[in-house]
Recover the amino acids of this structure.
């Protein structure tokens, strides 16, 4: 079965609001990376975590390897945040397994 | 730092033709990865090189697909006798070590007619 379960699959946010994306892992993962895929298809690095929490501007991400999940929080959403967000997890064998993605639409 | 460079950005081939995709990793990165993205399957790992040596090709289709890394500055993914189901975005990524942040190129969008 899928090792990375990402939710929600789609999300609409009004500008200025926030929400959380989540990835659950069915096996032990060593590290997780979060990406935004923009309209041109480029994967933009957001975070790389081997543990704990990182914050960058309006984004914050947490990785809990013991409880097998990672979250990405977006606050004060802006129109340019629209896109598809992916988590990718690595189980110690250097291969990333990607979630199915969350399609985020920010509405004015 | 130009990031990971992939060429061509778009490629259209006829069924049965060969397609070669190129990747230039970030200078100084020793690990190179290839992934494929389709609507149905999402993002899938294909193959991995470290210090130019092939480490893992478990994601590569057994027939028609091959990858090489002849020097530290580029890797190629070759698809022989392309089929419509090979249509996808092929993404290359590099990292400074195998287990580290992976930086992705813009991808090559392959369309097989």
């Amino acid at each position: 079965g899928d090792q990375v379960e990402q939710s929600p699959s789609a999300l609409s946010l009004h500008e200025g609001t926030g929400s959380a994306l989540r990835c659950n892992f069915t096996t032990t993962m060593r590290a997780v990376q979060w990406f935004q895929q923009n309209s041109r298809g480029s994967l933009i690095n957001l975070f790389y975590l081997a543990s704990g929490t990182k914050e960058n501007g309006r984004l914050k991400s947490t990785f809990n390897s013991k409880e097998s999940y990672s979250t990405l929080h977006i606050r004060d959403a802006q129109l340019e945040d629209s896109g598809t967000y992916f988590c990718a997890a690595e189980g110690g064998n250097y291969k990333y397994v990607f979630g199915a993605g969350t399609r985020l639409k920010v509405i004015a | 730092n130009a990031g990971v460079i992939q060429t061509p950005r778009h490629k259209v081939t006829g069924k049965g033709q060969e397609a070669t995709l190129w990747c230039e990793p970030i200078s100084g990165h020793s690990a190179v990865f290839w992934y494929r993205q389709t609507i149905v399957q999402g993002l899938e790992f294909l193959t991995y090189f470290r210090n130019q040596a092939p480490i893992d090709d478990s994601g590569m289709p057994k027939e028609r697909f091959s990858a090489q890394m002849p020097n530290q500055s580029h890797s190629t993914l070759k698809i022989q006798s392309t089929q419509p189901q090979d249509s996808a975005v092929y993404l290359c990524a590099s990292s400074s070590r195998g287990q580290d942040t992976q930086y992705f190129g813009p991808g090559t969008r392959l369309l097989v007619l």
